[in-house]
Amino acid sequence: MSEHPLRELAVLFLRLGTTAFGGPAAHIAMMEEEVVRRRQWMTRQEFLDLLGATNLIPGPNSTEMAIHIGYRRGGWPGLLIAGACFIVPAAVLVGCLAWAYVRFGRLPQASAVLYGVKPAVLAVVAHAMWRLGRAAVRSVPLGVVGAAALALAIGGLGELVILGFAGTLTGLAGWWRSGGRRSRIAVLVLACIGLASVAGEFLPRTLFPGSAPAITPTAIFLYFARIGSVLYGSGYVLLAFLQTDLVTHWHWLTARQLLDAVAAGQVTPGPLFTTATFVGYILAGPRGAACGTLGIFLPAFLFCAASGPLVPLIRRSPAAGAFLDGVNVASLALMAGVIRELARAAVTDPATMAVAAASTLILFRYRMNSGWLVLAGAAIGLLLRWRTL
Prior knowledge:
The protein is mainly alpha-helical. It has 16 helices and no strands.
């Protein structure tokens, strides 16, 4: 191990937090490139195990991957440094957008940047899927489970249900192959996924009071901490929660303000959950932004601290390791579903098709750093759409 692992973690995740556009799938793809292929901090299988673990707990997946990587590389200090360095640049950028929004009443024009970034991100995610897929799909049965998970995801089934189905199926097969030996770890994993399924399905409906509390930094922190503790899925699931609670029930925001908050999270690099930073700023200024950010990300640190040390133990158990194999292929199936949706939004005309094709060729043949590729996409978008600025 390097003599300065904490410094390396800080530099890497500050850079990713500043340049990683495109949502969780793209962030995870960039992390895999950096920590597996370029730096060789872990094997591709170890990375897949961490990816599976992040999908089993609520919260923002890409942030949790950063936290897990930090723990594996630098222990408990690394856990805090990697997570914080990935979050802070995005939160600062979103906070600046929120200040401009409050001051001038609109968001700066960012559609030109996204026009070029989206097709480049599509290539980055596809390239990572290819690399991770070769490590995850090690047998025909795992390939069949992954295909079934993809079909269920396209059919609209919930993410946690898909992960539980795939993991239970492969876990039972692993238990059978091991001669039916009892495994406390396997039982613990299955019990946890069952409890998480119940929590993810029912707790969001009961956690929030019907009447609106007063808008204070403390109330903002508590609200987003509750959201971060139970939310599975993408930033669009977060939008559904905020629409129901903050717009419809509590009237803290207008529908337009909420859409602008989500847009701010999308057009900036780093985690999409920095939408909470924007909302907090609108409601209570800089203190509200800080409380919203801390609230929605704090549970991720706690969940990763609790689950991270268990991942190597899970891999040592035949049944629990097989369960994790199923979760891993299902996680990749969910990423493949994201590629499908991203392609619809990104490739809209011949220019974006050309950017996507060129980005794919560069990644597969020349292995260009994905961060530079995304920045090049942003520059192309600005060049092609400069008249709209």
